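User: Here's a protein and a ligand (adenosine monophosphate). What would the complex look like?
Assistant: Let me lay out the input and then the predicted complex.
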Amino acid sequence: MEVIERTDLMQQKAEQLRLAGKVLGFVPTMGFFHEGHLELMRVAKKHCDVAIISIFVNPMQFGPKEDLTAYPRDLERDLAKAREVGVDITFVPTVDQMYPERFESRVSVEEVTKHLCGLSRPTHFDEVCTVVAKLFNITKPHLAVFGQKDYQQLTVISRMVRDLNMDLQILGVPTYREPDGLAMSSRNSYLNSEERKSALCLKKSMDLAQEMVGKGETRSATIKKAIEELVGKHPYTQIDYVSLCDPVTLDDVDTLRNETLLALAVRVGKTRLIDNCVLGEGEKR
Ligand code: AMP
């Protein structure tokens, strides 16, 4: 596996591979790999000739009160894992490489960023779009793979790609979970053992909602109330949002339709966890 740190060298490499007729798959990450990350890499590898990943903890997308300095990092372990799953190139730029002096451009997606995580993280998605657009220009992929765990991110990136005629395909991969149902996340490493137990309230909320829908419930308010009660019974938790919304526009819905997205963000101790599922759909994971 090749490890590339400079943007110009990565760009040249990608161009050479394209000229040689290779199909390039790309997985952007912030590192500290778990099985969810590795699954995205396997998918990229399966669909493409060359699997490229990036490891970059983008300081721009963290708010002033967020966990940038505490964000878990272990580059050596990550590189070993990427090698094991057959990644061909890992791009590991420095902040200076990505944001040189006088950097002043931004990519902004306007509507789908106004909901869910966009409410409490107002500049987050502009920064995510900006860094992902840059990474696409640097790694030149034909296919980029993202996790459905970050549903809004996947929606926003897909919108950016469509709106700006970016010439690549976006693929979403179902959420990888721990055996007890907790969605894998680098941030799970912040949880102490008591918080880890409480963190299960997200998956339990989704199961409860699926059960209510299975019994014919269609009122969003009723489902939300039941979820608030369930989460409230778990110590150290605080709801950021519970949203029942349209899976494309992310606009809230009062009455459930054929496909309604349930998206949750809950603080467990100081750790903010998110999860989502499409109600009415069986659990496919
Ligand atoms: P991150 O390193 O958190 O920025 O995540 C990098 C990519 O991995 C994003 O596309 C995430 O949506 C995806 N991802 C994170 N957690 C999971 C998971 N549990 N299952 C599947 N994909 C995931």
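Summary: The first strand starts at residue 2 and ends at 4.
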